[in-house]
Design a protein that fits this description.
Length: about 130
């Protein structure tokens, strides 16, 4: 009986542990390699250079769902904080970014919450498109 109970508890712990989720924001990194060829006719030489550029795309909606819904509601229609569903019709992207970085009224600054500049920029752009 004790072995069966212990096996049941251990099995339940494994199943529940596997079901856990995280709310990390979604980011993807794209790497682009470009090849540049230069011809120098004076020396009759050709030089080829490869440049690798790494860009990060932030899923602004995922970041907003993680950071904003507690005050602005699951659908951003407002809760403790104001309605953001049409915020882009009254505020520009730079104004929204300023509020995110510095706070305004009862809203605290979001740069102190661990959001990167890329995430702040992405969320500001995403919200500014809500009209």
């Amino acid at each position: 009986m004790k072995k069966a109970l212990l096996a049941l508890l251990l099995g339940s712990a494994l199943v529940l542990g596997a079901c856990g989720t995280t709310n990390k924001e979604k980011t993807t990194t794209n790497e682009t390699t470009t090849t540049e060829t230069k011809n120098n006719t004076a020396n009759n030489t050709t030089t080829t250079e490869e440049k690798t550029t790494e860009t990060t795309k932030v899923d602004a909606e995922a970041v907003a769902k993680q950071k904003c819904i507690s005050c602005h509601g699951n659908d951003l229609s407002g809760a403790v904080g104001p309605n953001l569903t049409k915020v882009g019709s009254t505020l520009s992207e730079s104004q929204i970014k300023d509020i995110l970085k510095n706070g305004k009224g009862s809203m605290p600054n979001q740069s102190g919450t661990g959001l990167s500049d890329d995430e702040l920029n992405a969320v500001a752009k995403w919200l500014s498109e809500k009209k």
